[in-house]
TrEMBL record:
ATP-grasp domain span: 4-62
Protein name from the UniProt record: ATP-grasp domain-containing protein
Taxonomic classification: Bacteria, Bacillati, Bacillota, Bacilli, Lactobacillales
Annotated SUPFAM superfamilies: Glutathione synthetase ATP-binding domain-like
Xref: Gene3D superfamilies: ATP-grasp fold, B domain
Organism field: Streptococcus agalactiae
Coiled-coil region list: none
Keywords: ATP-binding, Nucleotide-binding
Alphabetized GO MF terms: ATP binding; metal ion binding
InterPro entries recorded: ACC_Biotin_Carboxylase (IPR051602), ATP-grasp (IPR011761), CPAse_ATP-bd (IPR005479)
Length: 77
């Protein structure tokens, strides 16, 4: 989450988007891509975080700040 936030702040991106990374078994992080949209599998992210990402997208588009991102409470493969 922090890497994604820093990347979006560095390019002055406003809105909902996704960053994808791969974490190697040794802890190395590899950047894959950025997409300026809600990811197709956003329902998995919603289940893991408890956030309604469609609602967040609408709020951001109307000028609101992003809600505090909760710590993940699960994971998926």
């Amino acid at each position: 989450t922090e890497w994604s936030r820093r990347l979006f702040e560095a390019v002055d991106y406003v809105g909902l988007g996704t960053c994808e990374f791969l974490v190697e078994p040794d802890g190395r992080v590899n950047f894959l891509e950025v997409n300026p949209r809600l990811q197709v599998e956003h329902t998995v992210s919603e289940e893991v975080t408890g956030m309604d990402l469609v609602r967040e997208q609408i709020l951001i588009a109307s000028g609101a700040e992003l809600s505090e991102v909760p710590a993940p409470r699960a994971h998926s493969f």
